[in-house]
């Protein structure tokens, strides 16, 4: 049985005497530093996430049918009632009813270990998505909303949140082609439905391993990969392997072009462009960026080009440092290749600052890190975690932990399911899934948000808790930033993103503008590398000794080494994404990649590779990958002006919640960034958005993690 707390005793010697140092984990820390208590098999199966029908895969069909019946009733209500606040409330109920099935299914199709559940969830996603596309071109439904927006008297009677949500729904109708004639509307629906299949096919393909005959690789490196009979299966880049041949082999084999997936990507980009032009946009990028802070592809490209110019000298110096390190380590070749970037940038940092992850891991047990997050949120926001034992059938793996998020005066805010540990067939990625959005229900009760955090950590053993390296710790803080954004966004309506996007954009966590969605998570990275914060929780799991300040300082300083090159790599990804979704180039996606890599990166393209086929963000972040860079600039502004002086300042925390987090997507992000309608967050941005953000952009190297999987 898991203990409520665990005590670790260490003997500490000082100049005078021997003293006894006792460390006590909180219940939350103890819960994550011990193996999960087994679920009582005699309990009644309550279904996934407590949804009774989802005790079996067949429950997805039942959930779909129930949602479709509710949809029909709500459409009838919206079309047959006079325009008013009820119209918007009905639309939001419609969105919520469909999202409850689609959001949950979107997670289950990738996160559940049972193939039958995954298949049933995938079918549910496609079916709900098809219904949504038809609703987006339902003329009668659109007319009911237009009657509201055209009636000045009714419109003036609505509160700002209700009015903005109404405008979001109308925006969704417009970009779906509601204004087109009947034949073009049918074409738009057909294209959208086709995109659902292409998105799914491409996303699945990005994660599939490549196989090669075992004899094709030197015998001494075969053990580094997964061997299946006479074949070797390579499912990743092995970018941190100290063996250069392993890195090179993994890069060339994992990124070897798949002809069917190349064709799928071509069809996907063609379909997106055709849809965008059909509904009146120059390109898919123009359509996707309408409503974001960047507004246009031209603004994004200017931002990326200016950032490249700003980084150019430092990027060149970083690559020279890596080349020197490669020569120093007696490499087979002195030419710096793409498979060298991650390994040698880490090697440079390790040498300069004596950074050995194994020296840090004992201080970053998972329980200690969760306790640190708990203490930080408690001091900053008055929010704490409470560990709850899941009921039978509520979770998909016995290793999943359930946290209730509770405010000291407001009570329960929502639930976080922590799926942190590796298991067969689980995606190797760190991400956040929305299962249920928060909204104010008709009875006055608030529908609590429910989310899943998925990491890929080693499970604890009977004698040792899960130990995180610095990169894993930072990832945990990053993803928890997304979760807390969901918990603290107390919006009246759950609909904060266009309805037609729900099946493609669940990974965007809270339904808000994409170029703001990453701000809360990136801001958490600043807390994760501040000694005042780390000192509160980083303790040796055996002795209870705190992590020495000198080690934290070295870790933070090391992030600045090769930071420009790491940032430039992200610029390259963002530029590639923009060009793919811009006006058709009449060139292959591989030829485009070659050109963009030469212009925006600096390391050579490797023949017979197709990195774009592993670029899974093209689905969830199509034409919006730049948002990681823009969000980092905004997060830097927030950190410097609010928390750099005191990361535990409660007044700052409350204002950050009230004026940024609490709005979800109910307020224009640019209004929050510029300080419009607020008295606190006021950053005077110049007329050029990209130039303004560059002022706050300080390139630092994130701890090692795969840009292919980091979402």
UniProtKB/TrEMBL annotation:
Any GO BP: protein processing involved in protein targeting to mitochondrion
Phylogenetic placement of the source organism: Eukaryota, Metazoa, Chordata, Craniata, Vertebrata
Chief location of this protein within or outside the cell: mitochondrion
Gene3D superfamilies, per database record: 1.10.1370.40, Collagenase (Catalytic Domain) (3.40.390.10), Neurolysin, domain 3 (1.10.1370.10)
Protein name: Mitochondrial intermediate peptidase
Record carries keyword Transit peptide: yes
Gene that this polypeptide is encoded by: mipepb
Gene Ontology cellular component list: mitochondrial matrix
Record-annotated Peptidase M3A/M3B catalytic domain positions: 238-674
Keyword Protease appears in the UniProt entry: yes
Record's catalysed reaction(s): Release of an N-terminal octapeptide as second stage of processing of some proteins imported into the mitochondrion
InterPro entries named among the record's database cross-references: M3A_MIP, MetalloPept_cat_dom_sf, Neurolysin/TOP_dom2, Pept_M3A_M3B, Pept_M3A_M3B_dom
């Amino acid at each position: 049985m898991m203990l409520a707390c665990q005590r670790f005793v260490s003997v500490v010697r000082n100049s005078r005497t021997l003293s006894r140092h006792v460390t006590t984990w909180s219940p939350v820390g103890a819960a994550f530093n011990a193996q999960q208590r087994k679920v009582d098999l005699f309990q009644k199966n309550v279904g996934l996430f407590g949804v009774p029908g989802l005790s079996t895969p067949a429950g997805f069909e039942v959930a779909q049918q129930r949602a479709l019946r509710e949809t029909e009733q709500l459409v009838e209500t919206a079309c047959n009632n006079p325009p008013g606040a009820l119209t918007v409330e009905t639309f939001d109920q419609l969105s919520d009813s469909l999202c409850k099935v689609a959001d949950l299914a979107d997670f289950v199709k990738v996160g559940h270990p049972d193939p039958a559940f995954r298949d049933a969830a995938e079918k549910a996603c496609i079916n709900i998505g098809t219904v949504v596309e038809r609703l987006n071109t339902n003329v009668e439904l659109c007319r009911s909303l237009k009657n509201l927006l055209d009636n000045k008297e009714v419109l003036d009677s609505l509160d700002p949140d209700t009015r903005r949500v109404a405008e979001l729904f109308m925006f969704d109708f417009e970009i779906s082609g509601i204004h087109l004639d009947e034949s073009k509307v049918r074409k738009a629906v057909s294209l959208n439905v086709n995109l659902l299949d292409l998105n799914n096919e491409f996303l699945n393909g990005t994660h599939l391993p490549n196989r090669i005959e075992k004899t094709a690789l030197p015998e001494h490196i075969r053990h580094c990969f997964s061997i299946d009979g006479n074949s070797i299966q390579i499912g990743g880049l092995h970018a941190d392997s100290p063996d250069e041949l392993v890195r090179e082999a993994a890069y060339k084999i994992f990124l070897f072009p798949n002809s069917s997936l190349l064709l799928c990507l071509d069809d996907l980009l063609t379909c997106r462009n055709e849809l965008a032009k059909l509904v009146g946009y120059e390109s898919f990028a123009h359509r996707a960026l309408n409503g974001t802070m960047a507004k246009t592809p031209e603004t994004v490209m200017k931002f990326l080009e200016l950032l490249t110019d700003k980084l150019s000298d430092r990027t060149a110096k970083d690559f020279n440092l890596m080349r020197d390190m490669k020569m120093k380590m007696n490499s087979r070749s002195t030419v710096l290749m793409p498979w060298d970037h991650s390994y040698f940038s880490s090697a440079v940092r390790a040498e300069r600052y004596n950074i050995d992850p194994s020296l840090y891991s004992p201080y970053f047990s998972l329980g200690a890190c969760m306790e640190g997050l708990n203490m930080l949120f408690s001091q900053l926001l008055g929010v704490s975690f409470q560990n709850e034992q899941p009921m039978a059938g509520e979770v998909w793996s016995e290793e999943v932990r359930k946290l209730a998020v509770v405010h000291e005066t407001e009570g329960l805010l929502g639930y976080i399911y922590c799926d942190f540990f590796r298991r067969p067939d689980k995606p190797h990625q760190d991400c956040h899934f929305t299962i249920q959005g928060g909204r104010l229900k008709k009875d006055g009760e608030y529908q609590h948000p429910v989310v899943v955090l998925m990491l890929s950590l080693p499970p604890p053993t009977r004698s040792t808790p899960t130990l995180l390296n610095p990169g894993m710790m930072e990832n945990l803080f990053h993803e928890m930033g997304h979760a807390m954004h969901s918990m603290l966004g107390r919006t009246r309506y759950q609909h904060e993103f266009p309805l037609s996007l729900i099946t493609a954009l669940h990974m965007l966590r809270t339904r808000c503008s994409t170029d703001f969605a990453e701000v809360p998570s990136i801001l958490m990275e600043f807390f994760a590398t501040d000694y005042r914060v780390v000192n509160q929780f980083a303790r040796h799991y055996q002795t209870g000794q705190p992590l020495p300040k000198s080690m934290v300082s070295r870790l933070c300083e090391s992030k600045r080494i090769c930071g420009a090159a790491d940032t430039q790599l992200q610029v390259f990804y963002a530029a590639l994404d923009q060009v793919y979704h811009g006006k058709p180039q009449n060139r292959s996606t591989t030829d485009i990649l070659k050109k963009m890599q030469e212009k925006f990166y600096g390391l050579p393209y490797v023949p017979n590779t197709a990195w774009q086929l592993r670029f899974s963000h093209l689905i969830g972040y199509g034409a919006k990958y730049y948002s990681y860079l823009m969000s980092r600039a905004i997060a830097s502004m927030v950190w410097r002006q609010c928390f750099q002086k005191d990361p535990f300042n409660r007044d700052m925390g409350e204002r950050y919640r009230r004026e940024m987090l609490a709005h979800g997507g109910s307020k224009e992000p640019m209004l929050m960034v510029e300080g419009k309608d607020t008295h606190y967050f006021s950053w005077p941005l110049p007329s050029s958005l990209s130039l303004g953000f560059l002022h706050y952009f300080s390139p630092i190297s994130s701890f090692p993690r795969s840009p292919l999987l980091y979402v």
